Structures are given as structure tokens and as C-alpha cells.
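Entry 14. Structure prediction run on the chain below.
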Amino acid sequence: MRGERESRERIVREAEAFAVAELSQDRTGHDAEHVRRVARMAARLAAEEGADADVCAVAAWLHDAADEKLNESKESGLRRVEEWLRRQPMAERDQAHILEIIATMSYNAGANPPMRTLEGKVVQDADRLDAVGAIGIARTFVYAGWRGDLMYDPHLPPREQMTPGEYRRGPSTAINHFHEKLLKLRDRMNTAAARRIAEERHAYMVRYLERFLREWEGLD
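Output returned:
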């Protein structure tokens, strides 16, 4: 049992090293520190919810290495992660489980099906929690700048309905992104632990947006 424990811990460390190497130059807000925060939160949620901590850790570290925003396509990103997993002394069922989590956890304009497993729910919640609150606000403006989107355009309303392709590539602004995604995440959390954390972070974003618009109009 000790040998198995040490092997699983080594795989988690290797996943961390792989993710850091892959994402160290990212400028979209999906950088190595993002996945580090997601891994920390996943560990916290896994402990509270009783999920497999090692599966959660590896999936958390690897989730953005396969993201379609950072690869030629979602499929090519998943192939790279799958090739890495195959080189690890890990049970095939765990490898398949991690790939399933990574393949289905993104927001994708709200089009992806619910996560099937507790570990998937934990990792998805950890990722979504990093998109809300104070850090979520900062990441929104980093991503908008990288895309070349405006900070705000009062003549461009938030999109209510959109396909995944429109969500990725259609016209938007940093402020619209709150309405198109971030303010919806509180009600899409899977676990009780994440819902509790998301509640305050959601309220913080609402207060921020109210302040932003008052300053925009010269009222504060």
C-alpha cells in the first residue's frame, strides 16, 4: 500500500510539472498559477465531499493543457494529455476517468452535459470557482485584453443564446462576459461545498458591476 501511495503522489507531482511547463507562457488567464489554484481548491472540495483526491488532483493539473483555447483543437489537446497519461503507472480506469473529466468540464456556452462522477463535479467546481470573485474579475479583463475585446460597450448587449462557436468567437466585451457566463456559475455548482464558497464570490461580482456602471456613468 505504501508503494502505491508513493506512486500516486509521484504521478500528481509529474502532472504538476507537465502543466507548469505547458502553461508557463500563457497570457489568457489560463496560466500555471490558474491551474495551481484549481488544484488547491479541488483538494479542499475533494476532502469535504469525499472524492478521490488523486484523480481530482491530476485532472485539475491537466485540465487546461487540453483546452481548445490553447491548442489547435480540443481533440489535439486531449490527444496530448492522453499520451502523457499513457506513460504514467496509473490504472487504465483512472486514466479514462481523468480524460472524461477534462473532455466534459468546460463551460462551452452551457452546452456540455452534467458531470457524471463526484470527481468530475469537484474539478469542474474548482475551475468555476476560479472564474468568480476577485480573481475571476481580474481574469476576465486579462482574457478580454488577450482577445482584443473592449472593456465595455453600452451599445453591445450581452448575448442571451449562443452556440459554443459563437461563445468562443462572437463579439463580446469584458463586462458582457459576466452576464454571458460568470453570473450563471453560482447556480451551476455541483457540490454543497462549492455552492457555499460561490455565494459570497457571486455577491462580490454583483457589487463590482454595480460600482463599475456607476463610475462609467459618472455617478460615483
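The domain at 2-216 is CATH 1.10.3210.50 (Hypothetical protein af1432).
Filed with the rest of this week's runs.
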